[in-house]
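Onboarding guide, step 5: your first structure request.
Type a short instruction followed by the sequence, for example:

Predict the 3D structure of this protein.
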Amino acid sequence: MKKTILSRKIDIRLPSGKSCFLWGPRKAGKSYWIRHHLKSSKVIDLLQTDVFAEYASRPSLLRERFADAKGLIVIDEVQKVPQLLDEVHWLMEERSTQFLLTGSSARKLRRGHANLLGGRAWRRVILPLSYTEVSGFNLEEALISGMLPPHFLSEHPLEELRAYVADYLKEEIAAEALAQNIPSFSEFLRVAALTSSELINYTNIARETGVSQRTVRSYFDILEDTFLGFRVKPWTRSKNRRMILAEKFYFFDVGIAGYLGRRRPIPGSSDFGKAFEHFVLMELRSYQAYVYPEMPIHYWRTSSGQEVDFLLGDREVAVEIKSGKVHEGDLWGLHALLEDGPVKRAIIVSMEKEPRRIAGKIEVLPWQDFLERLWSGRILS
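The system replies with structure tokens like these:
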């Protein structure tokens, strides 16, 4: 079946006079969404060198040109000219001008103490494609290509991944002076991908990368600030058990993580299990971004090694990911979590073909069933 994109879940319907930041990694679909949903809006694309040069040399041109403008004005990749945000602020306050401000890096704005509009603009995030946004989906192929639109649709996804890693993850990050030592940062990317989904051990990663722990922490911050990765915090509120306090890290896309970590996600392999867990987490992240922004995602792990992959909300739903057939021995972590306090639902997302219930309270759902129920509002109330 031919792969196609159906429609994106992101919703940016703004009331009159309200502005919005739209953040997200490169190639997640910001520009495509703008072209197809905001055809009548004025777009200032700072990726165009002449447009960038014009506004970088004279940010006041924005005020001069649009002081009396009506309708929405889009500034694409606004972090390239942070000074424009002072002009945006003035136009919003004095002329009630409405803006959509897109960006793929908040780091340059924060470090330059740019005007982030003090809560005057809403915030939206666009992520790689979700299972529900496409047709022609094949899990095994998606775990290799990832879900960035051009990679997912490509007949040569490894070439697309190679170009993305070479041209963006390394060169553009260097160009923005976010990482001074590019060879060490490149090695860090590989090690971070290999240890994705595991507890972050800054000491070990520093030794493998050949830089200090402080530098490793700054590298993780770079990936978060450029929307290329995120940390998952541990659940720490337990009355009866001592909990692990370390965070976990995941890249923003399963294909990028697999390429950097040189994974071969063959069904039945440990690489497949890692990639499958990452894929399900990204669906949860998309649901969080587009439907339920207040839903925290934690993992649950005791100091004795009992673990549940993800805990959603305030102990609303526990989710364990299993890429093989589910056995009684796979329930150890969920049983421990249920003994530790009330959880509304406990679910194992699996590769099994039919849903079933095991040990009374625990649901085993095929991954397709889980995602369809998640996006139709039948997992979280």
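Each response can be followed by summary notes, for example: The chain has two domains: 4-125, 131-375.
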